[in-house]
Amino acid sequence: MSDWVEACATGDIDEEDVMRFDHGGRTFAIYRSPDDEFFATDGLCTHEKVHLADGLVMDDIIECPKHNGRFNYKTGDARGAPVCINLKTYPVKVDAGKVLIQIG
Amino acid sequence: MAGGMLIIGAGECGGRAALALRDLDYQGPVTLVGDEPHLPYERPPLSKEAMASDAPEIKAIASDAILAEKSIRHVHSVQAVAIDRAAHTVRLSDGSVLPYDKLLLATGSTPRKLPMPGLGPRCVYLRTFADALAIRAHLTPGNRIAIIGGGFIGLELAAAARKLGAAVTVIEAQPRILMRGVPAAIAEIIHEAHVAEGVDVLCGDGIASIADDGNEVRTTLAGGREISADLAIIGIGAVPVTGLAAEAGLTIDNGIAVDAELRSSDPDIFVAGDCCSFPLAVYGGRRVRLEAWRNAQEQGALAARNMLGAGEAHAAVPWFWSDQYGLSLQIAGLSDEGKNIVRRDLGDGAFILFHLAEDGRLVAASGIGPGNAVARDIRLAEMLIAKRAKPAPEALGSQDVKLKSLLAA
Questions:
Q1: What total of structural domains would you count in chain B?
Q2: Quick one: average pLDDT of B175-183?
Q3: Are A24 and A103 in contact (CB under 8 A)?
Q4: Which among B199, B217, B234 is the end of a domain?
Q5: The pLDDT of residue B57 is above 70
Q6: What Pfam families does this protein map onto (chain B) (predicted)?
Q7: Contact B171, B146 (CB under 8 A)
Q8: Mind listing the pLDDT tens digit for each residue in A36-75?
Q9: Which among B178, B208, B234 is the end of a domain?
Q10: Quick check: B16 contacting A, CB < 8 Å?
Q11: Residue A89: beta bridge partners?
Q12: Domain check: are B16 and B78 in the same one?
């Protein structure tokens, strides 16, 4: 089950930002936190299936670009209306300048 | 505290308020009264996703199970007919009387009626899920749909109708579509998109007469043009539902008037959402009424906090969006507060207009583009507006300067 997939290079994402990563018919969002750590979640908001990578990252929060649903991208926790379903997160590791995510 | 919290209006606003009261650990009775038979649901999809589906479904804010789990009593299919402020009770159309300690009026708005004779069964409005189902049934290939009013509801329905193959004419009496609150440069993009998709967009010509004989609707414009349609959808704005409040003697001022904490002229009655006229702190307390989904949601939650004594002033920046074809528009702030406009291009045809007041303060930002291209920068603009920032116009206009960097300034 250690299905590690290369998502991007570390330099592809600015600090406190996000990018979209599509793989195997699925879509993910890869985050780089203000303290330079990488995280990964499902790519679509649990409210209305909008790509979160178009949203804004502030500290450890990703905000949906459509209706401002907020999630903690480190834990996947939904942070209030209109979102009530948590976001699935995925393990991430950085290896030789590459960001890898483990797709379960 | 026998009466508990009573909420009149079970839409986005009322529903969110009820949930918020429980999230805030309020233990007393919470009762949500609505005149529709449905669970509290989101209205924005009614002119968008619901129209794209062959079998539209309600997008509920909370399920029956959630309401039960949170001990929120949902009284549906009834109207509130009178408030007895002295007794702290509300009488419903089924004759029952509900007590309250604090009352929230989230009665919303209702479509503005076209004040003309000649309307009939094929002249319809969109507000409820039932309205949406009725309209959806007419959006079939070749069916002729006249949309009266070039506002958001009408234009979103026009886009949905075209996707389903209907023949669509939009009739707008003003010189252009989206006159209220949308800059001309953005309205033009939307206008062109509709024309490219085959919609006949007629602006600047008022309606002289309408005749609905039950089989078709004939609309005659002042300029003489005649439009025949199988269905006329009227979308000419909304009016706040204030009757209940007015009869109870509450102050009305383009909506039920409240203070910054959403409290009406009766300290035990709060008001939120489309029906509420409130002072907007970010523009020096200018009194406004907003017909927007996010406002309904935020004010519902704020009213809940203040019903429990938080004493928190409204501080949000107005924001709304619209989706038509592949385009999405987002506007933060009130653009009529601006004097000067700075344009920022984002690529792929997406752009944002920043509206600056005379003193250089950023007061609004209007963006349009494919998908959610403008979302992030509009959100950052909203934060700048809330901060009452005076960003350098050159920085706003340059793609090389990240808006996020201006927030820190």
A1: 3
A2: 95
A3: yes
A4: B234
A5: yes
A6: Pyr_redox_2, Reductase_C
A7: yes
A8: 999 999 999 988 889 999 999 999 999 999 888 899 999 9
A9: B234
A10: yes
A11: A41
A12: yes
